[in-house]
Amino acid sequence: MDVFQVFQDPDWVITTKDLVTRELQMPKEEVWIVSSYLGGELDKNLFAPVIEANTSRGVHYYYVIPEDHLSREKIKSIRNMVSHPDRVHAIEISERHLFQLLSTHDTCVFDPFGREESSATGYMNVPNDLNELDYFVKLGVDYSYRLVSTVKAIGTPIDLDTVVDHHSSDAAK
């Protein structure tokens, strides 16, 4: 694909608002999110209603997070806000340097292993200091598939039901 074809594709760069819309419309089975922040997922004006709608219709969310208690607590909060918490999963990456590289630009991939034309559609955040908007660049299908395949191979699924809620244990003291 040459540079002119990239600019003719209206989806090659989108805003956070566009990503919210696509996340509501595109995934049929899975959404994979690589992030150390996860604030947008809990925001009722951004992704929170989308996650609820998608999990209610059977979509599974896989959050790739660093190995730390704050990220686990955010995943637990996401699970607590949806009607189907069994459809929210977390995979930890313990290799700190690899995770830092992956999460520098928050990334999401819709249906990485699907067979439809829209499968393995991915977007990566591009930090922007010029204005308040975040932009997301569309990823190639091969890269999206390889990213999720690699995470599945090296990541560790965690049992979110056994994650200790530090606030509850502090309150009990």
Describe the protein:
This protein has 173 residues and is of the alpha+beta class. It has a single domain, classed as Endonuclease, Chain A. Helix content is 40%, strand content 22%. The protein contains eight helices and eight strands, in the order H-E-H-E-H-H-E-H-E-H-E-E-E-H-E-H. Strands 1-7-6-5-2-3-4-8 form an eight-stranded mixed β-sheet, sandwiched between helices. Helix 2 (16-25) runs parallel beside helix 4. It is globular and about 45 Å long. It starts with a helix and ends with a helix. The model is unreliable at 164-173 (pLDDT under 50).
Provide a short characterization of the protein structure.
The chain is α+β, with helices and mostly antiparallel strands and 173 residues long.
Write the layout of secondary structure elements.
Blueprint: H1 3-8, E1 13-15, H2 16-25, E2 30-34, H3 39-42, H4 48-56, E3 60-66, H5 69-81, E4 88-93, H6 96-103, E5 107-110, E6 121-126, E7 135-139, H7 141-154, E8 156-157, H8 166-171
Parallel strand pairs: 2-3, 3-4
Antiparallel strand pairs: 1-7, 2-5, 4-8, 5-6, 6-7
Order of neighbouring strands in the sheet with most strands = 1-7-6-5-2-3-4-8
Q: N-to-C terminal Cα separation, in Å?
A: 61 Å
Supply the number of structural domains: 1
Which CATH architecture?
2-Layer Sandwich
Classify the oligomer: single chain
Instruction: Choose one word for the global shape.
Output: globular
Report the portion of residues in β strands: 15-25%
Helices and strands, in order, run as: HEHEHHEHEHEEEHEH
